[in-house]
Amino acid sequence: MAFAAIFLFVLFASPIMCFGKDHIVGGSDGWSQSGDYSTWASAQTFSVGDNLVFNYGGSHGVNVVSKDDYENCNTGNALLTYTGGQNSIPLSSSGDMYFVCPTLNHCDTGMKLAIKVEGSSSPATPSATKSMQPNAASTTFGSMTTMVFGFALVFVFMG
């Protein structure tokens, strides 16, 4: 009976431990020219394993850019470009990340976002492919699963 209870706990708790948080950029206003992204970002904690979710319409898009291009609103040297109205961008590395809208003059009017991603990994270098290295959540989950399984075996053999 104790084994069944522990098994159910691990089964239902594992999704909570495996996935990061989705940050909806701009909250209910989404990615638009009316957003105050500095204020929005200052109220968030971004961690490796989380996702930035950009919701937008019209002629907007999302460019991942360097710090210099962010500061100068240069949209011509994008590291990555996203379109389509909704994009979920995984935060797979710690460090600073910069985003701008590529539509003419939108960055100049404040449609840009700078964040600092916390966590134990190398500095942020966006890429189109995901890293195959385990993130902190999956490593922690693996350790916790091993520990819980070990305790379950003790209960089974002692109980």
Automatic annotation (TrEMBL):
GO-annotated molecular function: electron transfer activity; metal ion binding
Domain Phytocyanin as annotated: residue spans: 21-119
Any single Pfam family the record assigns to this protein: Cu_bind_like
Signal peptide boundaries: 1-20
CC terms in the record's Gene Ontology section: plasma membrane
Domain of life: Eukaryota
SUPFAM superfamilies in the record: Cupredoxins (SSF49503)
Keyword Glycoprotein: yes
Protein name per the record: Uclacyanin-2
Membrane-spanning segments: 136-158
Gene name of the record: LOC102604557
Organism listed in the record: Solanum tuberosum
Keywords of the record: Glycoprotein, Membrane, Metal-binding, Signal, Transmembrane, Transmembrane helix
InterPro entries recorded: Cupredoxin (IPR008972), Phytocyanin-like (IPR039391), Phytocyanin_dom (IPR003245)
